Amino acid sequence: MRLDKFISDTGAASRKECARAARAGLILVDGTTVRDPSVHIDENHAKVVFCGKPVQWSRFTYVMLHKPAGVISTTEDTPRSVMRLLPPEFSKKGMFPCGRLDIDTVGLLLITDDGPLAHMMLSPKHHVEKTYAYMCDPPIGEEQVRQLENGIDMDGYFTKPAYVEADSGERGRITVTEGKYHQIKRMFVAVGSEIIFLKREQFGPLALDPALPEGAWRFLTDAEICALTSLQK
Ligand code: URA
Questions:
Q1: Catalytic-residue membership of 102
Q2: Ligand 1: does its nearest atom lie under 6 Å from the Cβ of 159?
């Protein structure tokens, strides 16, 4: 693989920035300065240091984004696409949001180019749990919590059992194993309330990093990637 592709795949820099850094002698491959960004390296074994920082290549890239309100979970190149919050190299590499959050929903969005993993995470067969913090109005009571947990008739579709941890009538957390269109909002409408705030905090084994501000992203850690990929086994 070309050195500049190796580096841009990791999100560390664009190919243009690689060319500049290479000319400035800021790229080391196996301890040797490489000034030609087009050289081919062995992506599985080469030790690459870019501007003083080691860069790790892996076949797929996994990113956690704290989605803010007002952006759309799409790969389409529109000004409001979540992909605009990430380096353009990620889109070029074929990364996409794994599932959708509504435009006004905030929280954890996994962005990856690992198609099989995304398919597994989203497949209804795998019952991957998603936990959302919610605020609703009017407040719900015990009977509505019971209805949400037991299953709701949502326009003829009966939702699977959910788990609700209510802090009060107005706020709490709900965990579901499905991802139907506007699912949580429709479930609350069905029990006579309305979601006024929704934040995804957990997606399978992945928890939203509390240190990640809205609009910010980071690469998944090795432990997080391992937790995700082990679901496929
Ligand atoms: N359920 C919703 O209603 N909206 C979301 O964005 C996610 C789950």
A1: yes
A2: no
For the segment 165-220, what is each residue's pLDDT rounded down to a tens digit? 999 999 999 999 999 999 999 999 999 999 999 999 999 999 999 999 999 999 99
11: pLDDT strictly greater than 80:
no
pLDDT (tens digit per residue) in 31-59: 999 999 999 999 888 999 999 999 888 88
Q: Whose CA is nearest to atom 3 of ligand 1?
A: 182
Ligand 1 center to 186 CA (angstroms): 9
> Among 42, 102, 104, 155, which one carries the catalytic annotation?
102
Burial-class residue 59 by CB neighbours within 10 Å (0-12, 13-18, 19+): exposed
Structure tokens at 42: 């062995």
Task: Give residue for tokens 């709490």.
Answer: 172
Strand partners, 175: 131, 163
Task: Give the position, in ligand 1's atom list, of the atom nearest the Cα of 200.
Answer: 7
CATH of 129-203, one of 3.30.70.1560, 3.40.50.2300, 2.40.50.100, 3.30.2310.20: 3.30.70.1560
